[in-house]
Model the fold of this input.
Amino acid sequence: MLEKTYRIASYDVTPDGLVRVSALQKYMQQLGREDCNGYGATYENMRKDNMVFVLTKLGLEIYTDIHTEDVITMRTYNNRIEGAQFNREYEIYKDGKLAAAATTYWVLLDFQKRTVVRPKLFKYPLVSYNIKDKGIDIPKRIFPDTENLYQACVRKVVFSDLDENNHLNNCVYSDIALDYAPFDLNQYTIRKVLINFLHEARYQDELNISVVQGENSYCVNAFNATKNLNCFEAELIFTKK
Done:
């Protein structure tokens, strides 16, 4: 388990001064990495083993507004291993109270073959806390089976989207989903984000973005036309300001 304090920077907020989902994801990504470093599973060591962690599911709930200059304390730990997936939990505190929480699932990826690696090949002393009834439920399928959708755009993966794993970084996915909101986000506050990361997207892949609007919510699907595979699906839930 690892805990760290952050001050929300001015470049990590939306026009209303509230923290971006992608900014929280970046803090989470780095804290998880540092937690892994603590038991020897550094990125460099894992690359020598020809494996890296990639995110497959994210559930994030924001209970309290988090503004520019607010100080938050973030805690993370590996909760359990389910089949091929590592369940990592996050708790985010502001003024001593739980302000947000996130459930994430990760798999090991063979860096060269881009295939899933079984956890038994992970040689580092990972501690699993196995806390029951912990976490945010993330459905296996998010995007509804409906004809009531519209094609928002085609979004190409550009160089600035890429990370050390040479693919679209997981923090960019929520920005893409928010960019194609079907209503004025200035009138709403985001409270929950669910994302299923289905297949990685790489440089210059073209994503066809589809949107279905709900009441104070919407769903997004990104189909990778270059690979002929679904890239991700997401649901975003809001409260009216």
Q: What stands out?
A: The first helix runs from residue 21 to 37. The mean pLDDT is 95. The CA atoms of residues 76 and 90 lie 5 Å apart. The chain has three helices and eleven strands.
